[in-house]
Amino acid sequence: MAGVDVHLTDFQNIFNLEGKVAVVTGGSRGFGLQVASGLLQAGCSKIYITSRDAQACEEALNALNALPCRRPGAKAIAVPADCSMVSELDRLAAKVAETTDHIDILFANAGATWGAPFEKTAPDTFSKVMDLNVKSVFYTVQKLEPLLKKNATNGDPSRVIVTASITGMGLGTLGQNATYAYSASKAAAIHLAKNLAVDLGPRGIITNAICPGFFPTKMASGLVDLQGGFEALRQETPNRRVGQPEDIAGLVVFLSSRASRHLNGAAIAIDGGYILNKGKL
Q1: Is there a contact between 21 and 103 (Cβ–Cβ < 8 Å)?
Q2: What is the pLDDT along the chain (281 residues), one digit of tens a residue?
Q3: What CA–CA distance (Å, rounded) separates 168 from 191?
């Protein structure tokens, strides 16, 4: 059609993360390691991974730096830290600041779960899950905010991406293996992400939450077995599959890229429609 402009500016590079700097908490295994791999292969120049297990961090670091698809000079850096402790988050921020003056992407992913029936859910375990899944997310963002806003603009915002769960969108597991603390913490994480989106948005930092369903991770393995295994879960999922590593990595790369810069305060279910199917008759 004459006179209609269909040109999209630099669209071929809309998912390119070349030169970006990212921090991934809980980055030594599971979602964190998968996302760190995706970010590195999408062009990030530096990926800082952290978990409280120093040996696991070192093993993950070696695997990431052996990836053949990295940009020249791109590297992963390990900073072991216990994200449940605010003092450790201060140390993490200080260590990261030693080798970069800014951060473009924070994947706040460190978390824990616990299953027990209603009568046996203990206060200490409830507090531990809430502290790591909610409080530590807030303080991770707070401590890294000066680095996140350093190069951030409204046109090219920095990203905070919070790992929540579909259990924060509906009922979690009940009965003998109930996840009261985990489900409540993930609902809180979604709400926290929305609050951060409003408060940090004017500073050039946008915040979104991802809400995974069942994926083949160490954290999920016990619950998957209790649900009848992956084959049973496939039959309960509308698209008849369970999540794979590239699904999570792909979503986080999208949320880190120019393609998502007008997405702020969203909670995105990545579960193949599982949560929708749970309520069917």
Answers
A1: yes
A2: 456 677 788 888 999 999 999 999 999 999 999 999 999 999 999 999 999 999 999 999 999 999 998 888 999 999 999 999 999 999 999 999 999 999 999 999 988 877 777 888 788 888 999 999 999 999 999 999 999 999 999 999 999 999 999 989 987 777 777 788 899 999 999 999 999 999 999 999 999 999 998 887 665 655 666 566 777 778 888 899 888 999 999 999 999 999 999 999 999 999 999 888 875 43
A3: 9
| Beta strand segments in 79-157, E | 105-108
Domain span at residue 228 reads: 17-277
Q: Are 249 and 37 within 8 A, CB to CB?
A: yes
Q: Is 182 a catalytic residue?
A: yes
This prediction's pTM: 0.92
Residue 7: CB atoms within 10 Å: 5
- Residue 96 within any structural domain of the chain: yes
Q: What gap in Å lies between CA 258 and CA 216, rounded to an integer?
A: 29
Q: Which of 48, 139, 180, 182 is catalytic?
A: 182
CATH of the domain at 83: 3.40.50.720
